[in-house]
From TrEMBL:
Annotated coiled-coil segments of the chain: none
Organism of origin: Tsuneonella dongtanensis
Sequence segments annotated as region (Disordered): 48-72
Protein name (database record): Rhamnosyltransferase
InterPro entries associated with the record: DUF455 (IPR007402), Ferritin-like_SF (IPR009078), UCP012318 (IPR011197)
Length: 267
């Protein structure tokens, strides 16, 4: 006897609602695997939660109330860096899940596959960073973190094109720009394990940005407009402020991001 297969939307919703890091990591990887193996049907009966589940720690502060990071080379400064990165990856799990769950019905099964694969990558990134934090005598949750990233998602919940324009194509792309400098710092600290983690994350993030570009192009085609102009107008409308140089031109162009549009958004 075969059991009826559950809808992918329910499994995504459950992963979003998971609060503890281990639980969310397992749930995100499981939904990606179950979808890939055909154990879930393409169905979205229930709305995604407005706020995903979060653990009791870290304490979430507005970005302007975050304590200053210690000096780069000190143990405390290093812990603060890896903690901030772990938090970004933890929120990125929910960002990818929410993308698949909230917009999967209108964008189709390929979109769900791509963003669930991203969610599984983010879960792996989080695990690598939390493990690294533990080798430094800390752990995810030990320091406060800021809630700015989820806010960008909440502000674009009404429109898949706006969400793609801002989350993968601005926020994740920002990761491509800042990682090379972080990587040099980590290498200068003699942290070879940390450097390898950052290199792996950078490779994956180029693919994540590319997935965003791919589906913004789909939206532009549906709307009958130019994808670059669409990106620029959506970012101007939904993202406060200008993009900050220096830009990682080679990573950006590998991901398919327009360098001229990037520069237009920097001013
Ligand atoms: Fe990531
Ligand atoms: Fe990512």
């Amino acid at each position: 006897m075969t059991r009826e297969r559950p809808p992918v939307g329910d499994a995504i919703r459950a992963a979003l609602s998971a609060t503890e890091p281990t639980e969310k990591v397992m749930a995100a990887r499981k939904v990606a695997r179950d979808w890939r193996l055909g154990r879930l049907i393409f169905g979205f009966d229930r709305a995604m939660p407005n706020r995903p589940g979060r653990p009791a720690e870290p304490e979430l502060l507005p970005p302007n109330r975050m304590p200053k990071r210690g000096r780069g080379g000190s143990l405390q400064g290093r812990i603060a860096l890896w903690h901030a990165l772990a938090h970004i990856e933890f929120v990125a799990i929910d960002l990818a899940l929410d993308m698949a769950g909230r917009f999967g019905a209108e964008m189709g099964p390929g979109f769900v596959s791509d963003f669930l694969a991203v969610a599984a990558d983010e879960a792996m990134h989080f695990v690598l960073l939390d493990r690294h934090l533990r080798t430094l005598g800390s752990r995810y949750g030990a320091l406060p973190a800021h809630d700015g990233l989820w806010q960008a998602a909440a502000d674009t919940s009404h429109d898949v094109a706006a969400r793609l324009a801002v989350v993968p194509m601005v926020l994740e792309a920002r990761g491509l720009d800042v990682t090379p400098a972080t990587l040099s710092r980590v290498q200068a600290q003699g942290d070879a394990v940390g450097a390898r983690i950052l290199e792996r994350i950078l490779d994956d993030e180029i693919r994540h940005v590319a997935v965003g570009v791919k589906y913004l192009n789909v939206c532009a085609e549906r709307m009958g407009c130019d994808p670059e102009k669409l990106w620029i107008s959506l970012v101007r409308r939904h993202f406060p402020g200008a993009l900050k140089p220096p830009f990682n031109d080679s990573a950006r162009s590998t991901a398919g991001l327009s360098l001229s549009a990037t520069r237009a958004l920097a001013s």
